[in-house]
Automatic annotation (TrEMBL):
Signal peptide range in chain numbering: none
Transmembrane segments: 12-34, 54-87, 99-121, 177-197, 218-233, 239-264, 276-298
Family matches, as InterPro entries: DUF2232
Descriptive protein name: DUF2232 domain-containing protein
Species name: Kurthia sibirica
Keyword set, alphabetical order: Membrane, Transmembrane, Transmembrane helix
Length: 314
């Protein structure tokens, strides 16, 4: 690991400059969809090479320059990606496991969202989540009134009771939604950064193929307990137990959806089908999510992969 202070400063300035270039490129519509994911790369690299103090200094300097050059909106985005990048880099430098790196990236993403949310409320006195809920409810009510004018049967579509129920569930599920988005953000940065870090000669943990994803079976038993709680205890709307049950249920739904998609990839691999079929299955998994979630549960509970491998060997 380099010890030369001059080299440390030079490389720090270079990485900060590259970071700012990516930030500026992410201002270009269309191109920003690609460049934003590479924004944390220089800070990940620097954080792997140097200690936390040096990495923190370069990170802070990069964020300040980004704010000065691009303004508050892009500066906030730069802040988030810089924090996540530095966190991932330090986790790799310390030789942490793949699971630790993913969790660290998720927590850093969550920290970014929470800080942004709290700061926004502090300076604008507007709760963007509540405002979003009100706008959604207003849109649904407008749609309901339009259906009434057109003479469409409301019992099959929207009713005030259905709208209230949907809004209650949406409001209660905000925590799990933020956690899931934080996880996706962290994973996307890891997926885009690790191959490039390898090309730069950096040793990074090797993640297994997505088709090999296997959730712990204990999650299935916990899910059954959560379902039992919703079916038999039936927590009252708005209570702490209700919020916990809704969020756990949504988190498990997302996990089993991933398990189901993973099985599709495994099936395609074992049957030696074209890889494109696996990705078509991934896209179709969204509209067919109910079936894919069930597939994930069955795969986890009955070990479909072992049965599939056994049949293949025969």
């Amino acid at each position: 690991m380099p010890n030369n202070n001059a080299q440390k400063l030079t490389q720090g300035a270079l990485m900060a400059a590259i970071f700012i270039i990516f930030v500026l490129l992410s201002l270009i519509p269309g191109l920003n969809i690609i460049t934003m994911w590479f924004m944390p790369l220089p800070l990940i690299w620097y954080s792997i090479k140097y200690d936390i103090k040096s990495a923190a200094v370069v990170t802070v300097v990069s964020i300040v320059i980004a704010l000065l050059f691009t303004g508050i909106v892009q500066g906030v985005l730069a802040f988030g990606f810089a924090i996540i990048g530095t966190t991932i880099g330090q986790a790799i430098r310390l030789g942490k496991s793949k699971f630790y790196i993913v969790m660290a990236a998720t927590i850093a993403s969550l920290f970014f969202f929470v800080v942004t949310f709290v700061t926004y409320i502090k300076f604008t006195n507007i709760n963007i989540i509540d405002q979003g809920m009100k706008n959604a409810e207003k849109s649904l009510n407008t749609a309901m009134k339009l259906n009434e004018k057109l003479g469409i049967d409301q019992t099959q579509l929207l009713t005030p009771k259905m709208i209230d129920k949907a809004m209650e569930m949406a409001s209660a599920s905000v925590p799990s939604a933020i956690i899931f988005v934080s996880f996706l953000l962290g994973m996307m940065i890891i997926i885009t950064s690790f191959p490039l870090l390898k090309r730069l000669g950096v040793s990074v943990p090797k993640f297994g193929a997505f088709r090999d994803l296997r959730l712990p079976k204990i999650l299935l038993f916990i899910y059954i307990i959560v379902l039992g709680m919703q079916l038999f205890i039936k927590p009252e709307t708005g209570t702490y137990l209700y919020v916990v049950a809704i969020n756990l249920s949504l988190i498990f739904t997302m996990l089993f959806l991933m398990q189901g998609i993973s099985f599709i990839h495994y099936f395609v691999y074992v049957k030696k089908m074209p890889t494109a079929i696996a990705w078509i299955g991934t896209v179709l998994a969204i509209p067919l999510s109910s079936y894919i979630i069930l597939l994930g549960i069955v795969d986890l509970g009955f070990d479909l992969r072992m049965l599939l491998s056994g049949k293949t060997k025969k």
